[in-house]
Amino acid sequence: MIPNSIGLIPAAGKGVRLGLPYPKELYPIIRDNRYKPVAQFVLDNLVRSGVNDVVFVINETKQQMLSYFGDGRRFGCDISYVVQEPISASGQSTSPGLAHALDAGYHLVAGKTVCFGMADTIMEPGDVYGRAWQAAHKDEDVLLIMFPTTRPEKFGMVHTDETGRVLEIVDKPRQTTLTEMWGAIIWGPRFTEHLHGSVRTRGISDFARILNEAISLQMRVRGHFVADGTYADLGTYEEILELDTSARQA
């Protein structure tokens, strides 16, 4: 059980790379002859870790997500929805990005322990938030849940010292010796206020920069490495095919 916790799942992206006739967060994953949309995996992970209140950040086109997830009672939690407004740039509507999506739920998550995960990812073990919290120092401002990867160019890579303290986030490097990426994050009220001020007051949209500035401000940022864990990002068809292939081979 994570005290005073709330789940935060950004799902406001347009999903243009997949070109699906429905939100990519509802992409069907078949396991044991049962259907589960990809976004339900992170939701189940939160619930299994004792997080009972969850916020989905969506855009104005995601009505099908409301139809499927509803108020959350079927999934053992209470779900709220926040609509992320698009930013107008040169007359065109654009997605504001991850930092803005996370801050869109500020009025619901302020003062709480936030458990953040992406809606198009699958993480194992299935209670990774709870396990990370149990192993963490409870005075951390930010706890990065880290997984091994051989594709650093896709992720935010984490540089830690021998004690697990995070020294730097290197976002999507083409070349690096780092082998661990962050896949989910637990953070406290101090980082929520830092994120809010960065986005609303200073106009910063780069989430990696916001994390690195938190480190430079002497916030307590630590990594929890899930050595036996797996992390699948289903942002492209190639990644979906890889997941399906590995599932058939398992």
Instruction: Quote the CATH topology.
Output: Spore Coat Polysaccharide Biosynthesis Protein SpsA, Chain A
Oligomeric form: single chain
Q: Please, what is the average pLDDT?
A: 88
Radius of gyration: 17 Å
The domain count comes to 1
Provide structural commentary.
The chain is α/β, with parallel strands linked by helices. It has a single domain (5-249), classed as Spore Coat Polysaccharide Biosynthesis Protein SpsA, Chain A, CATH 3.90.550.10. It has eight helices and 15 strands. It has helices spanning 38-48, 63-69, 98-104, 106-109, 128-135, 189-201, 207-216, 237-249, and strands at 5-11, 28-31, 34-37, 53-58, 78-83, 87-89, 92-94, 113-117, 121-124, 142-148, 156-160, 166-171, 180-187, 221-225, 230-233. The strands form five sheets. The protein has a seven-stranded mixed β-sheet with strand order 5-4-1-8-13-10-14, with helices on both faces. The chain has a two-stranded antiparallel ribbon with strand order 2-3. The protein has a two-stranded antiparallel ribbon with strand order 6-7. Strand 6 (87-89) and strand 7 form a beta hairpin. It is globular and about 45 Å long. The two termini are 31 Å apart. 40% of the residues are buried.
Give keywords.
Spore Coat Polysaccharide Biosynthesis Protein SpsA, Chain A, seven-stranded mixed beta sheet, 250 residues, single chain, alpha/beta, 29% helix
